Each structure stands twice: as C-alpha cells, then as structure tokens.
C-alpha cells in the first residue's frame, strides 16, 4: 500500500525515533508498504518518520543511482543492487574529509542543495529479521545512509546548510509546509491554522 509522505513542517520529522522490537505490530507489512511508497515516489531511501512514524527504521535501494554515467565504474557497481532495511541503526563512526554532494528529500520536494558529509561511516543496525550487523560504507552509499539516518535523529538535510542558504530557502520551505506545491506522489502536509 502506498502511504503518504509527510512534508516539511510536520513535527514528526523533528523527533528522534524510538527503537523497536520484534513485537512491533505488522512490521513486515510496514516495511513492504515503505518499499512500495519509496518506489512510487522515485526515491532511493525512505525513513519511518517520513511516513509519520517516530521509530528507528529506514530503508535504502541505491540501484537507480547506479545508472548515473558521471559516476566511476566502482561507484556504479557499489550502488547497483544495494537494497537494505536498517532497524535501530546507530552510526558508530564517520571519518574522512567532508565533501559536497547535491541532495534532495521526498519530504522537501523541488529543493536540492549541496550538503557536506564525511565520506566513510561505520554503522550498526538490525536487518528485517533482527539479525545484528556492523558495516562500513563509503562514497555515495554512505551518503544515502547518512541522509536516511538523519531522519531517525530528527534532522533534515536543510539543517546542514549555511544560515544564508536557509534564509534564501525559507519562503520555498514555507510553501511546502502549506501544501503549495505540486508533486506526483501522495503527501501529507502539516495542519495549518486558519488566519495564519
């Protein structure tokens, strides 16, 4: 089932997600719905807060990025077929010199900006069968994971921009939070009080 993606301004996007257990109700169904929602919106990652759930769950499928001809063969191969569910994830370490890459977000449509991130991460997480993993990722793979991880920490990519950039984007972000935007996927916008 395709779920609505919550827009910038929804309080759930600012909450730190809670850890979940194997007892979480209908988890397999939720994960299946999240995949369907993400693919419908042409995303490469989706976090539970983006569908209104303040829990530590996100998923990533970077296969669509692997077609980018501007990437090295090595990057294309790393991205192709990378599909994972991350439950109760914790980034243990971020290393290397920060680098810029243009990012966007399904909760913040039509805004893309260069964001600085470290190139390598070590992350511990549980997969959808609650098996524990600790893995190290680098390059674009690390970046996509960092972006989704930020969502379960209540952080948006726009938080990482300079104060000047934030001021320049303010009116566009306000429009998104008021639903004054056209997208080709289901969205849910914050409740706007009348007269504001």
Automatic annotation (TrEMBL):
Stored CDD domains: Pep_deformylase
InterPro entries recorded: Peptide_deformylase, Peptide_deformylase_sf
Record carries keyword Metal-binding: yes
Protein name per the record: Peptide deformylase
Purpose: Removes the formyl group from the N-terminal Met of newly synthesized proteins. Requires at least a dipeptide for an efficient rate of reaction. N-terminal L-methionine is a prerequisite for activity but the enzyme has broad specificity at other positions.
Cofactor binding, per record: Binds 1 Fe(2+) ion.
Active site per the UniProt annotation: 148
Native organism: Flagellimonas aquimarina
Entry keyword set: Hydrolase, Iron, Metal-binding, Protein biosynthesis
The protein's enzyme class: hydrolase
């Amino acid at each position: 089932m395709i779920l609505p993606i919550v827009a910038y301004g929804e309080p759930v996007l600012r909450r730190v997600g809670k850890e979940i257990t194997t007892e979480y109700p209908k988890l397999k169904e939720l994960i299946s719905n999240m995949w369907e929602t993400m693919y419908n919106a042409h995303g490469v990652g989706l976090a539970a807060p983006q569908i209104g759930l303040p829990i530590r769950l996100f998923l990533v499928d970077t296969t669509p990025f692997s077609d980018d001809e501007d990437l090295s063969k090595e990057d294309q191969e790393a991205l192709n077929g990378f599909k994972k569910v991350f439950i109760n994830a914790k980034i243990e370490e971020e290393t290397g010199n920060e680098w810029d890459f243009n990012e966007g977000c399904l909760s913040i449509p039509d805004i893309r900006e260069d964001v600085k991130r470290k190139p390598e991460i070590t992350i511990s997480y549980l997969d959808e069968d609650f098996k524990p993993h600790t893995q190290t990722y680098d390059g674009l793979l690390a970046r996509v994971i960092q972006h989704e991880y930020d969502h379960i920490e209540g952080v948006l990519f726009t938080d990482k921009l300079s104060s000047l950039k934030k001021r320049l984007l303010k009116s566009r972000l306000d429009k998104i939070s008021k639903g004054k935007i056209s997208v080709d996927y289901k969205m849910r916008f914050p409740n706007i009080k009348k007269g504001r």
